[in-house]
């Protein structure tokens, strides 16, 4: 059999190959533009070794508020060439990285707005450099989930001790480019640690009973969320005598205490405990405690059995 008449068969054409290459080139160009436009975002999550060098560490629980409340507006701004970053205004302009002065026990409410074209995040730290050591509760967004241009957020910081703190952009490198300001914390307005007032002779009686939802997922005092009497706010004056009576109306174990931090069941103050996490009230049991209201500030009453405060067994205890 002769094969002289066989013809070469092309699997594609030069025109089709050219189109395919043009499409691939277009995809590469578009992908490159997107990648470099979001460069700050891609580098914002530091490797673990960098975070360790930056000073990441476990921090103490937030302080209790015993002073005044300050509101501070901060806006992320950038120079036209993106080399200089700042809060509120660029260097040399009024209100550039304003210094904040406060006292131990004061609270700052930060209203933070990203008015730039890059990604930013916010936090307060005592570290003199880097982006670690953030005070719990002071963060707005994070390096791995930053504020995009036009976004904003709110955070709080309560000064627990004297010294110099720093508010910064926590995206790696942005502090070094200028996004950092000082918070100068002086002694409490009383000239030292806030002290409780002398006994006033005024007495208060409060009933705070432990209650649970039928599925045990929601816990509360006196009434469940949406019902009258749910986790009532308590206000007393420093030096007042306070008596709290609690009955365990649920089917689980519970205990009571007034704390400085609702997430820390060990931060009980004023000798306010009824039972304890290791020796709680059983279903149907009750107890009471009488104590003197301490230093002015915002405290919290909670169930001190681990996890119960997070499920809803907490309310405000305000000493004026």
From TrEMBL:
Regions that span the bilayer: 21-42
Entry keyword annotation includes Electron transport: yes
Domain of life: Archaea
Keywords: Copper, Electron transport, Membrane, Metal-binding, Transmembrane, Transmembrane helix, Transport
UniProt feature coiled coil, ranges: none
InterPro entries: BlueCu_1 (IPR000923), BlueCu_1_BS (IPR028871), Cu-binding_ET (IPR050845), Cu-oxidase-like_N (IPR011707), Cu_oxidase_CS (IPR033138), Cupredoxin (IPR008972)
Domain Plastocyanin-like: 97-188
Molecular function via GO: copper ion binding; electron transfer activity
The Blue (type 1) copper domain, residue ranges: 232-320
Protein name: Blue (Type1) copper domain-containing protein
